[in-house]
Amino acid sequence: MADSEKESIESASSEISREFRSLIDSQDLDSIKQSQNLILGRLQDSNAVLSHFNEYSENCFMEVHADFAKNTRLLRSMKLDLDYIFLKLRGLKNKIAATYPDACPDNSAIEALDRRPDLELPKE
């Protein structure tokens, strides 16, 4: 590039810069900066509140987690016990029905009275 071209580009650049500066009001820039600082402060406050809430939630979860796990184990063992009890009861009913056929109603009456789910084969 020639020196004259560089000078013309520089003068054009400085002229465009002056025009842009004249388009933008410094008070508008100050109000935009104030708004941005206000938004930044609010976002930082919100972030602090959310961090505190997350810590609180984590502490509450840690307190409840042990009880929840213990109760889950208790419910599972109770279900296994009940499955075993119902299995034994069905076996006893079948033995009684085989030994004393007149003492028990027919199978259709038993099915009508017993509407519990079939627990003989526990699902794991």
Written description of the protein model:
With 124 residues, the protein is mainly α. It has one domain. Helix content is 82%, strand content 0%. The chain has three helices and no strands. The radius of gyration is 41 Å and the shape is rod-shaped. 0% of the residues are buried.
Strand element count? 0
Shape: rod-shaped
Mean pLDDT: 85
Largest sheet: none
Q: List SSEs in N-to-C order.
A: HHH
How far do the termini sit from each other? 82 Å
**Helical percentage:** over 70%
- The computed structural class is mainly alpha
Number of alpha- plus pi-helical segments? 3
The poorly predicted ranges are none
How many structural domains are formed by the residues?
A: 1
Strand-residue fraction?
under 5%
The Cα radius of gyration reads 41 Å
Features:
0% strand, 3 helices, KxDL motif-containing protein 1-like, KXD1-like, 124 residues, KxDL_dom, mainly alpha
Question: Helices and strands in order, then pairings?
Answer:
Elements: H1 3-23, H2 26-99, H3 107-113
Domain KxDL: 20-103
Organism: Salvia divinorum (Maria pastora)
Protein name: KxDL motif-containing protein 1-like
Question: What is the gist of this entry?
Answer:
The protein is mainly alpha-helical and 124 residues long. It has helices at residues 3-23, 26-99, 107-113.
